[in-house]
Amino acid sequence: MLRKILVVLEMIKFQHTVFALPFAAVGAAYAAEGLPTAGQCFWILLAMVGGRSAAMTFNRMADARFDAANPRTAARALPRGLVSFRFATGFLIASLALFFLSAGMLNRLVLALSPAAAAVILGYSIMKRITPLSHFALGLSLAMAPVGAWLAIRPEPAAFPLLLGAAVFFWVAGFDIIYACEDVEFDRRTGLRSIPAAVGVPASLRIAMACHGTALALLAAPTIFLGLGGWYLAAVALIAPLLAYEHALVRPDDLRRVNQAFFHVNAAVGLTLAGGAILELWRRTGPG
């Protein structure tokens, strides 16, 4: 059982929870105007883990047939039979149960919104059958992290988490477009839809760059409209060259470093933003 669980955690790339978790931490900290309670942090973390684990497990199950036919993904656990669909289904149900339980332990508003959130994060897995704009469905899934964490602490809308969520929306869509460039020929052969399959790799990289430029503008917006500066502004300034470096790694005729751009640089973006935002909050409110 432990071996199967470890295989599933590798299958869903559990370690990549780091993409959304820093933004959730920022949303929670700013809602609390300091450090949330230990209980709130615990249940937000479990909600993030449960939601992402459910989304990725469902994605691997939905795409198993395509993964088996794609040389890039044929070594994944389900195509190789390292875990069964029955076990994956059980893990999916357990992950969703953890997500809903955690939402209920936070507050009534989060619990009421949790079915819609689950529909969004699971729905991404079928969007490539429907529209080339599926990358933006993934962006919406991760954009809910700072907004949901804010509502978990303070169940009322506010500009800051919405701006942060909008930035995440375009940031994630941009790097998913880059990632999809690896599968452009496979997607075309199998009828899967993506922006690279629709418009080609060169145009897709330009669209991804536009998405990242928009994300950077939205990250900077709180410095103009909400008075954030100092450490937060420094973090945004550091993210700009990180995104530029991400695009420098990938060229239409050379996609060998897509994984480096996708995993390493984007993890650095989230951690940089979180570090700067938390330090700015600390500067404003003190360690309490």
Would you summarize the structure shown here?
This protein has 288 residues and is mainly alpha-helical. 78% of the residues lie in helices and 0% in strands.
Q: How would you describe this structure in keywords?
A:
288 residues, mainly alpha, Tetracycline Repressor, domain 2, 14 helices, globular
Tell me about this structure.
This protein is mostly helical. The protein has a single domain (2-285), classed as Tetracycline Repressor, domain 2. It is 78% helix and 0% strand. It contains 14 helices and no strands. It has helices spanning 2-11, 21-32, 38-62, 64-69, 77-80, 85-106, 108-127, 134-153, 159-180, 184-190, 195-199, 201-225, 230-248, 258-285. Helix 3 (38-62) packs antiparallel against helix 6. The longest helix has 28 residues, at 258-285. The protein is globular and about 55 Å long.
CATH class: Mainly Alpha
Q: In angstroms, what is the radius of gyration?
A: 19 Å
The span between the termini is 43 Å
Low-confidence residue ranges: none
Provide the domain count.
1
Shape: globular
What fold name goes in the CATH topology slot? Tetracycline Repressor, domain 2
Looking at this structure, what is the CATH superfamily?
Answer: UbiA prenyltransferase
Largest sheet: none
> What portion of the residues fall into strands of 2 or more residues?
under 5%
Beta strand count: 0
What order do the helices and strands follow? HHHHHHHHHHHHHH
Structural class: mainly alpha
Helix content: over 70%
Based on the coordinates given, report the CATH architecture. Answer: Orthogonal Bundle
The helix tally amounts to: 14
Report mean pLDDT, rounded to a whole number: 90
